[in-house]
Amino acid sequence: MSLFDLAHVAKLYEIQRARLSAGQEGIGDEVSKLIRRLEMGGVNQWRIQAKRLWDRGLGRDSAVKAKNFKAYLAGIPQIPANLLAEDPDFHLLSLCDPRPGLLQSCKLLGIKYEELGYTDEDAVPFDDRFVTPTTPFWFRHDDGR
Fold first, then answer.
1. Which helix (H) or strand (E) holds 22?
2. Positions of E strands within the chain
3. Could you report the per-residue pLDDT of 23-37, keeping only the tens digit for each?
4. How confident is the model at residue 3, as a pLDDT?
């Protein structure tokens, strides 16, 4: 069993000292968020994954136009029950929001595509079996290791 102890507090203190000496902000806000999350029962993957996309600009783009994170979250489906169970082959769970389109999503996520000359028309399904999704969806995958 892993227990929280003073070594964890010391490590947090070290991290904060390093940040402050580098001219960065302290970690008080981040630690407060962690405490609140733990008080609420742990990690909510649905909210966390949606927040990651929101922080990158998805949802505020012209395709979705959500006024705030709460409005964006309302358009994100819950994680399907069949994906909640851990899968040893596909251990990562991710959310995809294809509504902005391939190139706009790449731009918001920081993926470079301009030098390859891609356009939105390049993302057309070549076969009826592979239709490009138009609504947010969840999927499991591995990281290539």
1. none
2. 92-96, 137-141
3. 999 999 988 888 877
4. 85
Written as one string, the DSSP assignment of 75-86 is TSPPPPHHHHS-
54 burial type by CB count under 10 A (0-12 exposed, 13-18 middle, 19+ buried): buried
Q: By C-alpha distance, which of 112, 115, 131 is closest to 123? A: 131
Domain enclosing residue 11, as ranges: 1-42
Q: Are residues 19 and 61 in the same domain?
A: no
Beta carbons of 98 and 133 less than 8 angstroms apart = yes
Asked whether 49 and 95 are in contact (CB, 8 A), the reply is: yes
Q: SS3 of 24, please?
A: coil
Residue whose token pair is 């407060």: 32
Pair of tokens at residue 31: 């630690």
14 lies in the same domain as 49: no
Residues 28 and 65 in one domain: no
Q: What is the pLDDT of residues 121-136, one digit of tens each?
A: 777 777 778 777 889 9
